[in-house]
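## retry 2 of 3
previous attempt timed out at serialization; input unchanged, resubmitting
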Amino acid sequence: FTETLLESELFGYVKGSFTGANTNRKGLFEAANKGSIFLDEIGEMSPAMQVMLLRVLQERRVRPVGAHEELQIDARVIAATNRDLKQMSIEGTFREDLFYRISVIPIHLPPLRERSEDIPDLVNHFVGKYCDQSGRNLGISPRAMHLLENYMWGGNVRELEHTIERAVALERTEEIQPERLPEHITNYNPERIRAEFELPADGLNLTAHLENLEKTYVIEALRLTAGNQTKAADLLQMQVRSLRHLLDKHSIRTLSAQMRSGE
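## retry succeeded, writing output
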């Protein structure tokens, strides 16, 4: 979402407020009145939008784009992020007053690799979901489930869901077999991975190492998506705006364009 589009989505707009505004439209806050509104990736919100959101939370009023009067709203706000908002508030990239305003009941959800006991239930849920969509009836073999339970899942639940969606589409028997899982899952060996990440005896420059690792993952995401920044950002579980910041940071924006053009 652009900032203007996000504002109109959250707060609504009145007819004639901008080109294409042919009718009045309720915003999500007004639609959620007496209910709940979920704001995902709140850590990606621009400073200007943070100010607008803080005002809504403090005054419990919204003003649709182009309107002269405010609307009273009463909605529970549930916000989610994979960023460290406390650290961002210290660095000045996220408003401290907004951080404390939304931190009434913080809930930390551990990464999937730390709650492997949830994997069977999630797998069965996603198998059912994609079987329903395709009109099929599949189970999952014990060997395939074992591989899924022992994988590290760096992409968390989203990666697991995409893996199951792919497996359901490929499977031609009555149970999802290990052969329908990606090679990086079937070949996963935690002992080998641990050896590859063993800390050298003389130490290392962690900052430089993480910078190189970040750049490598960005390039790989672009390669897998043929330079499509929207799809690459989805793979990396970040906003397109954040990905473009990394492209500039690592001086690889030109590389993205070359991948799109097939050079």
